[in-house]
Amino acid sequence: MAKRNVCVIGVGMTKFERCDRDFTDLVQEAVTQAIEMAGVAPTDFEQAYAGYVNGMSTQGQRALYMMGIGGLPVYNVHNYCSTGSTALHLGYQAVASGMNEYVLAFGFEKMQKGPLETQLQGLKETLGQDADKKPPIAAVIFGDGGRQHMELYGTTKEQFAKVSVKNHRHSVNNPRSQYREACTLEEVLASRLVYDPLTLLQCCPTSDGAGAAILCSEEFAKKHRHSDPVKIVAQAMATDLPEDFALGALGMIGVGMSRRAAGKVYEQAGLGPEDVQVIELHDCFSTNELVTYESLGLCKEGEGGRLIDEGQVTYGGKWVVNPSGGLLSKGHPLGATGLAQCAELVWQLSGRADKRQVEGARVGLQHNVGLGGACVVTMYRKG
Amino acid sequence: MAKRNVCVIGVGMTKFERCDRDFTDLVQEAVTQAIEMAGVAPTDFEQAYAGYVNGMSTQGQRALYMMGIGGLPVYNVHNYCSTGSTALHLGYQAVASGMNEYVLAFGFEKMQKGPLETQLQGLKETLGQDADKKPPIAAVIFGDGGRQHMELYGTTKEQFAKVSVKNHRHSVNNPRSQYREACTLEEVLASRLVYDPLTLLQCCPTSDGAGAAILCSEEFAKKHRHSDPVKIVAQAMATDLPEDFALGALGMIGVGMSRRAAGKVYEQAGLGPEDVQVIELHDCFSTNELVTYESLGLCKEGEGGRLIDEGQVTYGGKWVVNPSGGLLSKGHPLGATGLAQCAELVWQLSGRADKRQVEGARVGLQHNVGLGGACVVTMYRKG
């Protein structure tokens, strides 16, 4: 597999929030930000990858046409919660393989009508749940994963709650986050119980939004006066294997996919978790962040609770995880999330993260997982 | 752009028909046919591209998991009526670029509840139509395109109807086609008027189905004892440009996209329409087949009617267009159509088309267009 580094010369995202704006308007804002950062004419895009889960087909084209961008190949893609990274991964491959020099990946979602719930209805029926009386299916799956972790490793409710405290604290400095208020451990634990051990402040809110990334070859970046762009040095997607489900609830939340995708990325990059300073990972629920520390190899299996207790995953620790505030604060518009994670890491690695800036960040890691499913892990490097 | 030929060593498709079978069952049948033809272990697929318009996300994974195929990257993609070819095009690029050696593209659709109508509801509202009283929106758009062609070039209703007569005649020999009855010109013209000039027998029926194609490098094909496989020698996708819509109704049905995609393919291949013997093109309505003769350069603009009058597009003519019976006979399950066209051409070029066989076929052309939109044109060659 012929591979070359891929530069990310432009990124953008809207504020994530419940809003009445049309998806084309959201996309235009995110893509315009990315174009302005890249400083290259949008009409030069060779291909475009549009990620969204809900809505009519060819909405990717519609959003681009509204910006006067047409003619080029456009692919509308989805993979539930990892939809944004799926668009990003196709764009990455187009450039890494040598096929294209300059492509656009973007993603968006209008979440107001609870589309994830609608989408997961089939799964809900499979599990024999009554839609009206039970908690949201995603909370059940990720709550069960957390409970299995507690049983296996003695992880505590407080440790999961501390993840939320950390991410909400980070979000205070992110003007694009839906929620921007810090909260105490007591507040997290005292908020409404959604599904044991998950309280409301440990679940991501419902938000609309869009994100975008412009990818190109190193030659193209140089030609357009990007002397030292952030690069994707490795990226991999993994899907479920039958043996994953034998792990029980932890298997259901994608631990197997996450491990395999991360393993491939470390191998491709020739770098390991010890080389990383900043991480955006898929904290749709607090339990999933803690479990993902282990899947990404930040610690051994069962030691995720220790990492959060020791403060190793925030400013001053070994890694800053979810400096953006994560999905828990920002929200999680399915098609946009993977691009928003990418944007945060590119801002971090190029010194554009303002008050959220992780000092000395040279290598960043992104983790975006969707049940059903697909996990995409990406490693970024400055210089 | 580094490019190499891509071999299609396995294809398959279900019979297209209204049925109660689950999509996973349909996919399994189509993919199993393709695997049997390829004679390679399915667990070796490096990536998979799943095309469908309607349904929950990650159905591509679900269909593969049911066959025991997991772990690999899976991309769920759509582009309305060209969804199948969109999956095929991503698979093609993965191999043509040198990134992958062996990938799977498949597509499926359950069409029973009129999902195209649901999907096009937004467009219908834009056009100010009353959903209950007016003909299906697709018939309106493709009917208007036909009427503009009549006004501009003197094309007749009989010429459009002859397209249906030809394709239904071809379908008699295709056991996978929903409709397999020949009909006379009088019968086509006398069938219920859907939207002038389109009568019922000039509209594709509603069908469920699945299709699949296995793509690999020439090296991989040789290693697995495919001594002379059918190759994709060129493929291109085009989307709309603002100036296309200035063409009026003909612009709406994708004439601009079709011309540009075909032009790119001829340029990439170094071959022209005169080098082609067999064509599968997007005859969702009879009008679109006739118009597409011109978009593909089989004749000059305005001369499509002459081609059908002269019998140049059937057995004994210059090209055999839609030997499968086309969408008009087979039906048009959105995600499956592009893969079914591919399957027919691979069968034709490898001498597997039984009573439909086009003698001396060495080069085939595929055209699949989706409003909204995207057009994919593909050139296949034997040897």
Kindly summarize this structure in a few lines.
The first copy, chain A, is of the alpha/beta class and 383 residues long. The first copy, chain A, has 16 helices and 12 strands. The longest helix of chain A has 17 residues, at 137-153.
Note down, in words, how this protein is organized.
The structure is a homodimer of 383-residue chains. The first copy, chain A, has 383 residues and is of the alpha/beta class. Chain A is built from 16 helices and twelve strands. In chain A, the strands form two sheets. A ten-stranded mixed β-sheet of chain A has the order 3-2-4-7-1-8-12-11-9-10, sandwiched between helices. In chain A, helix 1 crosses helix 2 (59-65), helix 3 crosses helix 16 (334-349) and helix 12 (255-269) crosses helix 13 (286-295). At the A-B interface, helix 2, strand 3, helix 3 and strand 8 of A face helix 2, strand 3, helix 3 and strand 8 of B.
